[in-house]
Give the backbone structure.
Amino acid sequence: MNFVVSIVFSGAVVTLLVLIPWVGVGAFDLRVLFGIVIPYAAVITFFAGLVAKVIGWGRSPVPFRIPTTAGQQWSLPWIKANRVDNPKGNGGVVLRMIFEVLLFRSLFRNTRMEFRNGPRITYEFEKWLWLFGLLFHYAFLVIIIRHLRFFTEPIPFFVKLLENLDGFMQIGIAPLTGYQLPGLFLSGMVLLAAVGFLFLRRLLSAQIRHISLPGDYFPLFLIGAIGFTGILMRYLLKVDIVAVKELTMGLVSFHPTIPGGVGVLFYIHLFLVSVLFFYFPFSKLVHLGGVFLSPTRNLANNSRAVRHVNPWSYPVKTHTYDEYEEEFRDKMVEAGLPVEKAPEPEEEASEEETGEKE
Amino acid sequence: MADLPKPEELVQIDHSPSLHKGLLGWMDTPVRIREGIALYAGKPQSLEYVGMPNPREWNPLDEDWKLPENWKEIILDGLRERLDRFRSLKVFMDICVRCGACADKCHFFIGGGDPKNMPVLRAELLRSVYRKEYTTAGKIMGKIAGARELTYDVLKEWWYYFFQCTECRRCSLFCPYGIDTAEVTIIGRELLNLIGLNVDWVAAPVANCYRTGNHLGIQPHAYKDMIDFFCEDLEEVTGIRPNPSMNRKGAEILFITPSGDVFADPGTYTAMGYIILFHYLESLGLDITWSTYASEGGNFGFFTSHEMAKRLNAKMYAEAERLGVKWILGGECGHMWRVIHQYMDTFNGPADHLEVPVSPITGTRFENAASTKMVHITEFTADLIKNNKLKLDKSRNDNLVVTYHDSCNPARGMGLLEEPRYVIKNVCNHFYEMPENTIREQTFCCGSGAGLNAGEDMELRMRGGMPRANAVRHVHEKHGVNMLACVCAIDRAALPPLMEYWVPEVDVTGVHEMVGNALILDGEQKRTTDLRGEPLPGMEEEEDV
Amino acid sequence: MTLEELLLQKRDAIKARWLQAVLESYPPDSRRFFKKQKDQFANPVGHAFSTELENLLQEIIEPSDPERLRASLDRIVRIRAVQEFAPSQGLSFLFLLKPIVREVVTDAGRDEDLQREMEALSTRIDGAVLAALDVYMTCREKLYILRADQMKNQVSALLRRAGLISEVPSWDAASEEGSENHPLNST
């Protein structure tokens, strides 16, 4: 795929996705559709799709124990084994997965800082991939947890706590003229910055550009648009939070209502989120679930100590020792190799043999 | 004269479409099969002997690869079947986010610069077809969803690039989801084999291993003859003639090593090292036998299909059972150990006829091999040294300045890192590590593994081995390293030409060759040469005095 | 200012432009990697180009030792001999230096002396190309020797056993026996 086509296509699709609710709600007043039907459908698709995907993966067995070992194995008691990078048991695997999932350990491996080219220390570009990848995912997580305030009553303490942490930066920011800016959340900014980085990295690095597909640009644009509309609502074109919460609480309590006074911007935001939910199970975003099922990471390296069973193992044709000896018996006997069955005294053959010997 | 291109024009000439159409996207850049990179096709008799499909004469450089009419159906059915059998494949087909972390980790990309040698793209070759056939988005949206039809050209591309991967797993180390290109390549090659697309350097050894037990097709008497020949050589060097036993029933331990160690230098000297070690241990209670039936540790079936790997591997347990041994000791080899460590028990176990390995000399119980019942020789020797069971004269290796190349599979498919180092440090005085990002789990491949160490693809091998050679050159220049030690028979076959091209001053050895040099046998004569018959500098002088 | 002084003064800029021009011969993906990755072990190709082009430039501007020139050429050409290049493309990197130098000279003004010296420099580059051709051929020959040896090496011990090959006595041994007897000297 040509990257220009990829980007233009992805960009066009996201633009279209913004226009749909804009027109739908703004011109045709389809609030029930965009505020209730589509979100429900999206959430159902998301969970059903993701569960189906994970079950689909799970239905395929793991015939062989193939962890990628990234450290010293457990062998002799006096050799220090690396229990995390080369786990011997399930405890180590859990640790390895925690490092992998929470800290992106493998990606971090990319970023060793001992680069030497003369006296200068140079920083490898890829270090930023780990950093921004991590920032991106954690910012996303924080934002999702923060949004629980729209779906819970009373709001749980940890949501408030997180909001306080997330918003601690606001203290220094003076309100702009005419606007009373609410607390600035770090997470939203970080998310947008990370999306920006990940996009630019795909665009500017020829290597990554070459391997990128529309399926790589589209989610970035979509998430960027979601973040952008969210930020717009919060800081600039403010929406009626109370009305929004009425709508969202209606959704989670299965008594959906469409309160008045919720602007079209909110519907755009909600629609984009719905699209993300729709899209999720059918895209590379399923790496969220897949990482837990990766056989090179989630298995202990103990295949010599504990037998691993292949459920679909079937008998195969082998070349048995008997067949082997049958073919080479005379030569083996002559060479003094022990055999199972004494050679049959074939007249001609033995004459030949002796003839050769003489 | 005016017609001659200017140099700057020359540089821009699109000599290789597969490389330069960056803008068009890789999906639309057709493959160009090149001599010097492509391997020879598998010969019909090899395929026939083991009952593999579509045996015929064909040439990868030809247009027509003589495929069965319904080749596409066969491949797609095969892919579906494997998706249902391997969670690894299914997950790896879905979750790649193309972050590019693996892109510059492949030795073929680093040395050659062909974009399709970026692991992510190698996998995308298969993934694109997977999307087209098995995902809704791919079916509807085609290329927009990264999907493409399996065409003749795509098939050729698969063959070309799946045989430019040494299944070394270096990329898998850096992937945030552990996507393992080796797994993709293994299954990709398995699919290609369904329609008879193999290479000679895999197909012929497979047939040979199946029939004679070793990859060169050496018959049993010749195998024994070689071992006797080594014993003669050893008598010359040490004054003592070992007497290893072959196919002996009732021995306690069966020894299996790659047959390359018996037939090709410098592996032969490693084999001599084993023989010396076993002879030394005989008086301490070692009861060990070699086998001509199971005379190949390396598993070329693994480069063909899981089934073929299992068929060839079956000999190990079968022979152990026939001879009635208690456990198996395995020689120095790379992919052999990946198969033994991660596959053998699953393939052909449970080996209930064997016992948990216990070293007869030290009494150490190898709990880590409790089920598979096979121990790596460096684990065995390291244990001997640790327990002070070996009398060693390190100075006999003083002419060597050694560095150690971690073979990919024991490193990333097992974790055998310290054992060989411990042995090396106890048998020689001068040992230097290569830079950290080129050894241990980050080790660079020799560039010739997984069936690539043929002659016709020498150009590919030299560029693939370049990152490894570069690190060797570094320690050669810095510390005067002149010997590259390894624990792999393919390394011992592949690294000498690699060194000859890039760092001619460095030679290659197995770890147990150095053990054999250092080991002091009871009643041996004063050694004036090493196992290679080359004079030991210090020792000669003493003689002169 | 002599040409030599001028070029030495602008050496870093010339080298950077030269390196860029050489990397242009690779696909964009690999070009970036060869250029950006600074670790000499993670990126041996890029590192070799970067350091050896510099040495080469030095030798071309101020020739000191033909061996140094050869060594630098060897590092670069040995790599390009096993990459996806036709021989002409493999060696074209040396010619790329000419327009870069010429531009520097032109920028410095139309000094007659400079132009004359430029001729000499151009000849030196041509000489380097010929030397590079030698290296290139040696590398390719080596490849074919390795290719030919491959089969033999796989069964080397067997051949030795069967007495099919015997090791040639080393050169020293032969010369000790008296050089007159050596087959190469007998004609």
User: Anything to note?
Assistant: Residues 10-22 of chain B have pLDDT under 50 and may be disordered. Residues 205-540 of chain B form one domain.
